[in-house]
Amino acid sequence: MAKWDLRGYDRSWGWGTVAGTALVSAGISLWSVMSAERLPEELATQWNEQNIAGGFEPLFGINLLLSATAIVLCALICGLAITRRAASALLAGVGVGLGVFFALGVNAMHLTLIASQLDAPDPTRVTMNPALMASTLGLAALAGLFAFIFYRPQHAA
User: Fold this and answer.
1) Cα Rg for the chain, rounded, in angstroms?
2) How far is CA 115 from the centre of its chain?
3) For the segment 35-82, what is each residue's pLDDT rounded down to a tens digit?
């Protein structure tokens, strides 16, 4: 059971990844609320194979669901990777990198979903902006790569 023990471990990576994800999520949610007058009453959230919107949610529900999903994903994946660091530092680094990527990937979808519907007159005709999705997912992948490269388990001083 000693492999799950966090006593004597510098917890800054654990707190930092979750806090960073929470800040990004909060920033996207705040921006979307500040832009609410430019958004439809209900936002498109699902599209069929012809790229026609078929599912809709209010802004509050989208912000709550996607922000909570990003934070929980980061906490679970990064937390598990960090607690298992004694088994393999390499796998712990991979886990932290994937946790950061998945959490920021959800934030990328959140941002793209909101930005694609700014000033949209009809939410049923809205499509996701592929260039924005690709660039934000690319940034999420880059952040995950940096987390993998720079994560080094450290004992507390």
Assistant:
1) 18
2) 16
3) 999 999 899 998 888 878 888 999 999 999 999 999 999 999 998 888
